[in-house]
Amino acid sequence: MQMDYKKELRTEYASPNRSLKKDLDYQIGLFKNDKTFHEPLNHLLEFVAILNENREIVFCNDKFLELLDSFQTDCHYLGKRPGEVLNCLHALNSESGCGTTRFCRYCNVVNLILNSQKGTDDHQNCQIMRSDGGAWDLQVRTHHFEYQGISFVLFAALDMSHENRRNALERLFYHDVKNVAGIIQGFSKMMFNEKFTDDKKKEFQSIISRSSSELLDIIESQQMIQSAEDDTLETVYQTISINTLIKTICDNFSLYSVNDNKKIEFNESGGDINIDTDPVILGRVLGNMIKNALEAVKPGETVSIMTQITEDTLLINVQNPGEMSEEIKAQVFKRSFSTKGKGRGLGTYVIRLFTEKFLKGTARFTSDSKKGTCFIIELPVKTQN
């Protein structure tokens, strides 16, 4: 992403400045011609890049090149910043590149580099959302050094994506299963208490039935997420009624504990819509959208669902009262991020993963003090007359 340095570059965080071509070529030549750097850095388990004062890559070790080759057929990495070569969603959507968006102020990759440039070396776990719907989970450390009178930062990272993904899935699964299984066990025991009336026991049976359905849903969700992460999830497209699918999901939530006297309102003013899609995967996406909204509102408040059809696309909006903070907005679709605690950050990540990787659509959100928070998925459709 070597740019014309005379062009005005904008930023919402780190400096957008790019090196002049002659300066960049000189810095690249320093490390290309000095073989003393090559052997020690190529023997490290981490993938390593050396960055100049504008956070541009002037050298990569073999591990880094192997990583880039594994997902990019043609990667010109010299002169680019880490987020740009790692396909960071925000870096690629910004004209000024990695480090310059409002999301970047919450990115540990950028902050570690900036801190090292100021003389404070550190290491952190970092996550980068990729443009293909996936994510990097990295363990990153940085180190400032000077060479030939020029300041550089050594950027070293281990890819922990597989391990962190497995741990996150396991934490979420065990947490949810344990909670629901505990409810089933507790009410099952109470049913044998002779002091309870038949009406009370029927109420317990209803709770057990509802919790059993919720437990099955958790298990099926875990299986789908695992398959999606492993890229083995198969799509089966068919023509379905969107209104019927949404009504079924809403009815299911009326039985789940997350509902807790909260209201779900489905606006059908646009009439029924038939589209070609995978109903199981779309159902999982809509389920996560509605569940997240229900968890964000108080008892008595309403979650609103609305659909809108155009010639080529279907929009499904799930809205709830309340505005998210800027920090939450910047990290919403990250796999590991959640306001609910460690290991609880898969809901919005799954919405984006399933929608963009398997349903050929897009996922986004808006959040402000007047209209509240709205998650939106946009799907390609083939309407049926």
Describe the overall structure.
There is one protein chain. The protein is of the alpha+beta class and 385 residues long. It folds into 3 domains: 139 residues, 2-Layer Sandwich (Beta-Lactamase); 71 residues, Orthogonal Bundle (Helix Hairpins); 152 residues, Heat Shock Protein 90. The chain is 41% helix and 22% strand. The strands form 3 sheets. It has a 5-stranded antiparallel sheet with strand order 2-1-5-4-3. Strand 3 and strand 4 form a beta hairpin. Helix 7 runs antiparallel to helix 8, helix 9 packs across helix 10 and helix 10 packs antiparallel against helix 12. The longest helix is centred in the middle third of the chain and has 32 residues. The chain is elongated and about 85 Å long. The N terminus is likely disordered.
- In whole angstroms, the N-to-C terminal distance is 47 Å
Beta content comes to 15-25%
Decide which structural class fits the backbone: alpha+beta
CATH architecture of the largest domain: 2-Layer Sandwich
* Uncertain ranges: 1-6, 341-345
- Classified in CATH, the superfamily of the largest domain is Histidine kinase-like ATPase, C-terminal domain
